[in-house]
Amino acid sequence: MTITTTGRARPVDVDVLIVGAGISGIGAACHLTSRRPGTSFAVLEGRDEIGGTWSLFRYPGIRSDSDMPTFGFGFKPWTHHESIARGHVIMDYLRQAVREHGLIEHIRLGHRVTRAEFSSSTGRWTVTARRSGGPEETRFTARFLFLGTGYYDYEAGYTPEFTGVEDFEGRVVHPQHWPQDLDHTGRRVIVIGSGATAVTLVPALAGTAGHVTMLQRSPGYLISAPAKDAIANTLHKVLGHRRAHRIVRRMNIVRNRGMYTLCRRAPKLMRRLLIAGVRRQLPGHFDVDTHFTPRYNPWDQRLCMVSDGDLFKAISAGRASVVTDRIDRFTRTGILLESGQELSADIVVTATGLAMSPFGKVRLHVDGHVVNPPDTTAYKAMMLSGVPNFVFALGYTNLSWTLKVDLVCEHFCRLLDHMDSHGYSAVEPVLDDPDMERVPYMDLGAGYVRRGIAAFPRAGTRGPWTAGMDYGKDVGRLREGPVEDGALRFTAGEPAPAASQSEGAR
After folding, report:
1. Between 137 and 501, the higher pLDDT residue
2. Membrane-spanning residues where (predicted)?
3. Fewest Cβ atoms closer than 10 Å to its Cβ: which of 135, 164, 343, 476?
């Protein structure tokens, strides 16, 4: 199923305006349709296809770096036999969710939101979106604004400045913008990087390339996982999809949280175990100490998942190799390293990371004042101090992204229920502890986080202002905890009238 609807060009007024039709925005829309069927909403997507990350990235081998029973939605069982799923399988799953919840008529593709302004006098957001293919702008109004835009820049990935790259006679590509006409068959390929993208690309390219070299400045932690979960697939056959989904999801959450906790509490032990796991999958003569022994502790950066050990199989078969060194410069025929070694290449892939961007570059204003994200503090890691009727969804870095998104969407629906039952038109988090220390929203050592986190909201160190990546605590405060909170300021009164659901969804 291909979704191509762009909706009507006329302005529309809705209860909730969702920005982004990736996994977060689709999740929010599904929660609204099932939990609040009378709520009108629209979904604006800047690109011409739903799916977010999974429709943007088209490089060979793209797959999830989390198990799909937890990366998928809690309300929609993951039934495919692949637990570590390929990108097109994930896209099929998202299209199914859109169809099953009747979201097609709510989604407007090709609407890139550039500006959102909240007016306290009307209690509504006015959102400006630029139509794809031209300068035409469309305006929407909404009671609530929900941003499901992720945290990285969709327009460009991160590529360091390499000396001499203009001298290279081959082709240089970034995975975020993979050319569909790129033929790597029989070619010498260098993949620069050691993160999840590089770990995925190398074995995928090695199947047909002449040879693939993973060139890394320093190694990261890798852990193998089966692409197909035999226990999960058996449970689905025996118990049915819904019952099996609940069991497998809970089992995987416990396992993944346990792995993370062990890495933080016993880093030396887990370091030995992780490196030993890599060593077992490589030839005895392989230099694991140089190429797969990181300088940092496990989970200072995210663990990279190797599906079915395919990277190690490609290395063991001689189709791929690993070089750990620093780049001196590009040459006409490849890359010269600081050690003096020169690697020959026909294609160089710069799997060098993401560029972070808060809130999809949407410029926020409240009563005429610009909202500068670093000046705000995240409330329950889903709202911003001083910004009324606003919710955002950023997933976990240490567990599956969607586990957090589901909790945020559940709490958002509870918040709307609470406001409707008490006659509130607006809600605003108010930082009631001005002396509280503020810290970065994410505490992760990855390069993309270090480069970009300063542009994001800050987190607090106490109460609802913390933003720790802790699923157990988030279940307590988002799913089970009360909506009422001393840090929330509710405004009584009837909200400005919204369009009916049938009109607002057109």
Report:
1. 137
2. none
3. 135
